[in-house]
Amino acid sequence: MSAVAQKRFPASSSCDSTGSVPSESDRRESDVLRFIHITDTHLLDGADDTFHRINTKQSLQAVLDHCAAHYPDADFWLFTGDISQTGAKESYTQFESAIREYDVPVYCVPGNHDTPQLLQQVVPECPLDSIRVISLGRFSLVLISTWIKNEHHGIISRRCLTQLREHLQNGKDRLNVVVLHHPPVPVNSKWLDEIGLQNNTDFVQILDNHPGEVLVLFGHVHQSVDQQFNRLRFLSTPSTCHQFKPNAPVHLADPLPPAYRFVEMNTNGCINTRIHYIR
Q1: Torsions phi, psi for 68 (to 5 deg)
Q2: Rounded alpha-carbon distances, angstroms, from residue 39 to 59, 147, 166, 266
Q3: Exposure pattern of 150-163 as b/e (b: 16+ CB <10 Å)?
Q4: Each residue's pLDDT tens digit, 166-208
Q5: pTM value?
Q6: Residues 127, 144 contacting (CB under 8 angstroms)
């Protein structure tokens, strides 16, 4: 089961909607980026441990197998936090054992359940107290930590906000993909909005002052969100384990299965995206 969404940023060129998959050389010439968004895996310390009656290691493995089978030419896999449920070293051993089976670059940001220093030992580009910028041709992948010790909500430090502003000012000709764990926009669920990004106004204002298009990817909400404000597009992705019911004032489970998102974008501003639910 999958859900498809195709949009363009405002004032962008038209895009090819034939559905054909370009070759590696075509992708370099057309400046196309194709990647997988995975989030909220909530891995436990043992391979057989369960969370909300779900074996999160097995559900992640099923998602990764589907990704590898259907998108073997993806440029990278992007994990937006809560890799671990416990924050323990053993849970990151489970993560490492899952991703090392595939020859695909992996990037990530920490979530509120993570221990960022331990996650960085598995994925060195994981940001801590500075943003991490991955240059990908005409694109920039900007990784930002919103982690606060012993808190469920998130904050971007002043240092990282300054670094983000400087990066955008210095790369006006680049299409930026900005990545964080906590939602920087309301998702119309009171309980989730209360534990989102606390300084979201400062963050969005920096992005909105940038003259180019920006795609923002986040996790934390265990559901699909797709919002557009001016030249900014915000996407979240359902979890690889359990989901939260949308538009709910309190925490309610949604029976939808584990999922991930495929994203294809080009420098004309076209974004094709599809969510796959793994039954």
Answers
A1: -65, -35
A2: 12, 15, 28, 23
A3: eeeebbbbeebbeb
A4: 999 998 888 999 999 999 999 999 999 999 999 999 999 999 9
A5: 0.90
A6: yes
